[in-house]
Design a protein that fits this description.
Number of strands: 8
Mean pLDDT: 97
Low-confidence stretches: none
CATH superfamily of the largest domain: 2-methylcitrate dehydratase PrpD
Strand order of the largest sheet: 6-5-7-8
Order of helices and strands: HHHEEHEHHHHHHHHEHEHHHHHEEEHHH
CATH architecture of the largest domain: Orthogonal Bundle
Distance between the termini: 52 Å
Shape: globular
Structural class: alpha+beta
CATH class of the largest domain: Mainly Alpha
Number of domains: 2
CATH topology of the largest domain: 2-methylcitrate dehydratase PrpD
Radius of gyration: 21 Å
C-alpha cells in the first residue's frame, strides 16, 4: 500500500471501530490546552489583522471564531482559530518532531463538526485520528525537514486536518486517501517566518488547506496515490530522511499512540525556553538579594544552535514574537520579573535596560548528554563569587512531568482572567470534559466568547 492508502486505512478503521477512552481523554486535554493558549491572544495585532482579512474574504456562515464570536465560514474560522492557537506560542509541542501538532488540525475539524452538527464523541475521535496521522507523516519527514527550513506543522498540519475531517465525515477509504494526497501535494510553510506574525498565519492557512483538501476529495477530486513516496512526492521534496524508516513509522501508529507524547506548555513561550525558565524560577527564591554576574545554561546542542542563530539574526528583540523566541530574553525576564507571562514578551520588558543587560550575560553550553529539549541545567555565578545550580531532566508539561487535568483548567482560568466573565472558564472546562456525551458542539461554542 502507498503511504496515503495506509493512512487512509488507519483513519477509516479508527473511525469505524472507535478509539480507547484514554485517547479521547487526551484529545480533551489537547482541546483545553489550545483554548488556554488562545484566550489571551484576542487583542494581538496579528489576530486583529488576520481576523479582519479572513472574515471579510470568507464572508458569513455558521462557524465561529473563538472568543471573538464572529460568525463566518468554516474556512474563515479555521484560519483565525489556527492563528489564535499559534500566536502566543502557548500551545502544544511534539518534541520528537519539533512541531505543534494540534494547532492546524483542531481548527479545521472543530469548524466542520460545528457546521455539520457532529457529536462530541465523534469530534474527539476524529481529532485524535487526525493528530495521529499527522504525527506519523511528521515522524517520517523530521528532523531533516526542519533542517531544510520548513515549519514542521506547516508541512504536516494540513495532512492531519484533512485526515480528521475525512474521519468526521466518514469518507470511504478512496476519498480519504484523496484528501490526504491533496494535502500532501499542497504542503507549505517556511521557518524564516519565526519572529513575525506570518508564523501565526501559516498555522491558520494550513488548517484551511486541510479543510479544503477534505472538501475537494468529498466531491470527487482525484489526487496521486504516491503523493508522499513518489519520485517527486512530499518525502523527497521536503526531507532528506532514509525511506527505509517509513514502514516502521506506519506500523507504529497507535501502538503506542503518539499523541500521548505531546508537551503542554505552562508558560507562553517557545518550547526550548521552558527548561531554562523553570530553572530560573527554581533558583530565584534562593538568591536572597545576590546579583547574578552571569548565568550559564547546559542545554541540548540544537537548543544552543537555534538560540545563537536567532541572536545573530534578530539582535535585541524588537517585537513580542522575537522576544517569545529569544531564550536569553525569556530567562533574563523571568529572573528580573519573578515570573514569565505574556507581559514578559511585551515592549516594556524586552526594551528594559536591566533585562537587556542580564540577557547579555547569559551563556549557553552544548551538553552531549542531553539528547532532547526536555532537560537543561543552570549555574548562576553571583557577583559575590558564590554559585547556585539547578537541573531539570523533564520540564513541567513534558510526558515525563505531565500536567494534571486540574492544572490545565486552572491555566485556562488564569489566561482568561481579565477577559472572561466570572465562572466562564470553569464552565468551558466542564464542557470540554463532558464532550464524550455532548450531542454536538453548540454548548461549547456558546461558551467560547469573551462577552457576558
Amino acid at each position: 500500500m502507498t503511504v496515503s492508502a495506509e493512512l487512509a486505512r488507519f483513519v477509516c478503521e479508527g473511525m469505524a471501530g472507535g478509539v480507547p477512552e484514554a485517547v479521547r481523554h487526551e484529545a480533551k486535554r489537547l482541546v483545553l490546552n489550545q483554548l488556554k493558549a488562545s484566550v489571551g491572544a484576542v487583542s494581538h495585532p496579528a489576530i486583529t489583522r488576520i481576523h479582519q482579512w479572513a472574515t471579510k474574504a470568507e464572508g458569513t456562515g455558521r462557524a465561529h471564531v473563538h472568543w471573538l464570536g464572529t460568525a463566518t465560514t468554516p474556512h474563515g474560522a479555521a484560519i483565525v482559530n489556527g492563528a489564535l492557537y499559534e500566536v502566543l506560542d502557548f500551545h502544544d509541542t511534539y518534541i520528537p518532531c519539533f512541531m505543534h501538532a494540534v494547532s492546524a488540525v483542531l481548527p479545521a475539524v472543530f469548524a466542520l463538526a460545528e457546521v455539520r452538527g457532529a457529536s462530541g464523541a465523534d469530534f474527539l475521535t476524529a481529532l485524535a485520528l487526525g493528530i495521529e496521522a499527522e504525527l506519523a507523516v511528521a515522524t517520517c519527514l523530521m528532523p531533516t525537514g526542519y533542517y531544510r527550513g520548513y515549519v514542521p506543522a506547516g508541512l504536516t498540519g494540513s495532512v492531519g486536518a484533512a485526515a480528521a475531517c475525512a474521519a468526521l465525515a466518514r469518507l470511504d477509504p478512496e476519498r480519504t486517501q484523496a484528501a490526504l494526497s491533496i494535502a500532501m501535494c499542497t504542503a507549505f510553510g517556511l521557518y524564516e517566518s519565526v519572529g513575525s506574525n506570518t508564523l501565526a498565519y501559516i498555522t491558520g492557512a494550513t488548517a484551511r488547506s486541510g479543510l479544503a483538501a477534505f472538501e475537494l476529495a468529498e466531491i470527487g477530486m482525484t489526487a496521486p496515490a504516491t503523493a508522499f513516496e513518489g519520485d517527486k512526492g512530499m518525502f523527497v521534496t521536503h526531507s532528506d530522511e532514509d525511506p527505509a524508516k517509513i514502514p516502521g513509522v506506519l506500523a507504529g501508529m497507535a501502538s503506542p499512540w503518539r499523541l500521548f507524547g505531546q508537551t503542554y506548555k505552562v508558560v507562553p513561550t517557545e518550547t526550548i525556553t521552558h527548561g531554562p525558565v523553570e530553572c530560573v524560577l527554581a533558583l530565584l527564591p534562593q538568591a536572597h538579594g545576590r546579583q547574578p554576574e552571569r548565568m550559564v545554561f547546559s542545554v541540548n546542542a540544537m537548543v544552543q544552535r537555534i538560540a545563537d542563530e536567532r541572536r545573530e539574526r534578530f539582535g535585541n528583540p524588537s517585537s513580542e514574537s522575537e522576544a517569545c523566541f529569544d531564550l536569553r530574553h525569556c530567562a533574563a525576564a523571568a529572573w528580573l520579573r519573578g515570573r514569565f507571562t505574556v507581559a514578559e514578551t511585551a515592549s516594556a520588558c524586552y526594551t528594559d535596560p536591566d533585562v537587556l543587560a542580564l540577557r547579555a550575560r547569559i551563556e549557553l553550553v552544548a551538553d552531549a548528554a542531553r539528547p532532547t529539549f526536555e532537560g537543561c541545567a543552570l549555574t548562576v555565578h553571583y557577583s559575590d563569587g558564590s554559585t547556585a545550580y539547578h537541573n531539570v531532566d523533564n520540564f513541567l508539561g513534558t510526558p515525563g512531568a505531565r500536567v494534571p487535568d486540574a492544572r490545565l483548567a486552572a491555566m485556562l482560568a488564569e489566561a482568561g482572567r481579565e477577559l472572561l466573565p466570572a465562572g466562564r472558564a470553569d464552565a468551558i472546562a466542564e464542557a470540554v470534559w463532558s464532550l464524550d456525551t455532548a450531542p454536538d458542539l453548540s454548548a461549547l461554542v456558546a461558551l467560547l466568547r469573551t462577552a457576558p
